[in-house]
Write a structure and sequence with these properties.
The chain is of the alpha/beta class and 507 residues long. It is built from 19 helices and 19 strands. The protein has a 19-stranded parallel β-sheet, with no helix packed on it. α13 (303-310) links the parallel β13 (293-295) and β14 (317-319). α8 (182-189) packs parallel to α9 (207-214) and α11 runs parallel beside α12 (278-285). The radius of gyration is 27 Å and the shape is globular. 43% of the residues are buried.
Length: 507
Amino acid sequence: MTELDLSDKDLSSNAEIITILKENKNITKLDLSNNELLFECAETLAKNKTITKLNLASNRIGVKGSKALAKNIHIIKIDLSHNKLDDNCASAIAKNTTITNLNLGGNNIGCVGAEVLAKNKTIKSLNLHNNKIGNIGVDFLAKNITLTKLDLESNGIDSKGVEVLAQNATITNLDLTYNKIGDIGAEVLAKNTTILDLNLDENNICDKGAEALSKNTTITKLNLACNKIGDKGAEELAKNTTLTILNLNDNKIGYAGIEMLAKNITIRNLNLSHSKINDDGAKILAQNRTIIELNLADNNISYIGAKALAKNITITDLDLSDNNLGDKGAEYFAGNTTITKLAMCSNKIGNDGTGFLARNTTITYLDLTRNNIGDKGAEMLAKNTNISYLNLSSNNIGDKGAIALAKNLIIANLKLRNNNISDVCAKAFTMNNILRKVDFDNNYSFDITEEMIEKINVKLRENCEAYQQRLKERDKYLMNDKHLIKDLWKIIIEYIADINEEEEEWS
């Protein structure tokens, strides 16, 4: 085994870490996030020579631990977010010359730490979200010429800090979520010609800033969620011909803006959740033939809008959560043959609607959280032979429905949180050979023994290992096929060459 996930395991002692490393001598990727590990554990991990990717997020490694890890010359990707690290820790890590991907988010790093990190010449991806970098720290980071990905979410940065950052010529992925850049900052960033992926979620940007960004010709992915953009800003963004992913969640966009966005022919992924779309907007968007992923959650859409969207032939990923679809709205998707991922959380869907969805033959990912499908609905979905991810949390499902789902041999990831399932159904899940993840949290009648929990976990681990083995075998066959094709092509070329030689001799 080369990859090991031990997150959320209540690990705290150095002895446990030593044992883990002894039992997994070939490990290259290790996840120890959300434990209680102290600096001694970090010192032990720092001596390891096989791990290249290490996740220690949400532990307590402190200054000593970070300094020890900084001396490791094998790790190239490390997550030390939420470890209460300060500028001294950042200074120690900045001296490392092998790490290329570093996450120090959720710590206590200020402009001093930013200054030393900016001098590092090997880090390409740097995450400093939720620190205290400020405009001064940004000034140092902007001068770095090796960074290509930078996350500065929640760092008290305003338009002045952005002015310097916009001049950087190497950063292609920039996250400035929850700062204070406003329209002025948006206008400055719009002039940058290297950024491809820009996140300006919650930055007090209005139509003016949106209009400036619409004129940029290099950004392909733009997140403007939770701002103050109206129809005018949406209309300007709709004119852009380079954007392929656009997030306008929770703005002030109405029908006029939606109408223009629906005419865009380059956007493939559009998020308009928490807007003012309703059925009219849904019908207009349904006419678009380039959007593949569409999020229209919380938009007061009824079965009328659902009917129009179900007829669309290009959308493969659709989120209609928190609307008013009901059983009638769900019915229209029974015959849809393009959607593979569908979310209909909180839509008052019952047995009838579930029955229609269970007949669909293309959906592989279905989220029906917070509806009222009950045991009958669960039994109908259990007969579906395409769905591999199913979320039925908060649906009043009991043991009968859970046992039916446990017998399904297609579902690999099943969520049944907040239902009425008891330990009676537990044994059924120990006999399933396909499930790799199952979530029973907050089932108040689920008074299961530790022994049975372990049996279920053992079975899930066995299924995961079997799945990984199947993937390896598939890759092996594919590799063999590639070699066969290559050899066949070589024979064809040689054959053609022989024919050409014969033709030349005859001539």
